[in-house]
Design goal:
The chain has 114 residues and is of the alpha+beta class. It has a single domain, classed as Ribonuclease H-like superfamily/Ribonuclease H (Nucleotidyltransferase, domain 5, 2-Layer Sandwich). The strands form two sheets. Strands 1-2 form a two-stranded antiparallel ribbon. The longest helix is centred in the last third of the chain and has 15 residues. 12% of the residues are buried. The mean pLDDT is 83.
Length: 114
């Protein structure tokens, strides 16, 4: 299972997420982004920062970001997890507090309500 999140750094809150069995853009970041946009209107300049994952670098997702002139996309430097420290910290906490302490037997059990 793959969890894709959008975290608002100003309030340090997950404002969009998607859970999928693949890393395809239309199953990960696109539903995640649609959830984010449905919750908050983008009316000020916004920096969307991510690692260099294939779903973030895909033409399909970049098209979504470019559809709003207020959004700028930024990506971590190759091999530098410190550039994406908030997301790395979130996933470390999620894994250490929730995932590592439970053995999931089915996909339905993998569902993690954020």
């Amino acid at each position: 299972m793959f969890l894709t999140t959008v975290i608002d750094l100003y309030v340090r809150q997950v404002i969009g997420w998607a859970l999928s069995t693949t890393l395809y853009t239309n199953e990960t970041i696109i539903p995640d982004w649609k959830m984010r946009v449905s919750k908050r209107k983008i009316d000020k300049p916004l920096l969307f920062h991510s690692d260099r994952g294939i779903q973030y670098a895909s033409k399909e997702f970049r098209k979504y970001l470019k559809s709003n002139k207020l959004i700028t996309q930024g990506m971590s430097r190759k091999g530098n997890c410190c550039d994406n420290a908030v997301a790395e910290s979130f996933f470390k906490t999620l894994k250490s507090e929730l995932i590592c302490h439970h053995s999931y037997k089915t996909i339905e059990e993998d569902y993690i309500p954020l």
